[in-house]
Description:
The protein is α+β, with helices and mostly antiparallel strands. The chain has helices at 24-28, 56-61, 79-92, 97-108, 138-154, 157-167, 239-249; strands at residues 38-39, 43-44, 116-119, 130-135, 170-171, 185-187, 190-192, 202-206, 212-216, 221-225.
Amino acid sequence: xxxxxxxxxxxxxxxxxxxxxxxxxxxxxxxxxxxxxxxxxxxxxxxxxxxxxxxxxxxxxxxxxxxxxxxxxxxxxxxxxxxxxxxxxxxxxxxxxxxxxxxxxxxxxxxxxxxxxxxxxxxxxxxxxxxxxxxxxxxxxxxxxxxxxxxxxxxxxxxxxxxxxxxxxxxxxxxxxxxxxxxxxxxxxxxxxxxxxxxxxxxxxxxxxxxxxxxxxxxxxxxxxxxxxxxxxxxxxxxxxxxxxxxxxxxxxx
Length: 254
């Protein structure tokens, strides 16, 4: 992949879909212009099919066939965009995706236990079965976050990429999101510009049930918060106390 400004028109799987006409940076920023076709709560608008239940080829041949992106580069969060990116990377590795995973997770992050992405069962990689759903234990999540921070600080190839996606981040325009993801901007699949952390470069990740990772790449502070029931009002945690304040003040919360 030449750069984040490359267009995905070299991938036969998504030919004649809106994503083949978009630059990688737009899809990374959740600004692919796909708001007429997919919703993060309801799946594909035409049929209601969920994007984690079928491979990319199925959507490309049905709901997205001859689709056109909107002219807007407005932030529109949805998991299909992430699945598109993941499967494009699988395609570009030319059947050597596992080698890339080993380089990233075993050699760079130095994980101790198994980590893995989920795939649709019964489909070869040519169909785009990869899902963004990722499994790791809490300490390996921390190791992965530290690898991100180390790359940023040491200005490696990955570090330069992280600086570039931070520079190219876009406004969320007051998108309605849960508290642990409620930031002002988004860039390269990271939540950025958290309220209360002015002038701090923080890369944030949010997962199911309130799981969150915040990485203050300049001040060497990382918070990994494990949660399962944030969607239940009874179990919502205090975002400011458990996520923002530890990054801002550097104090451990027990």
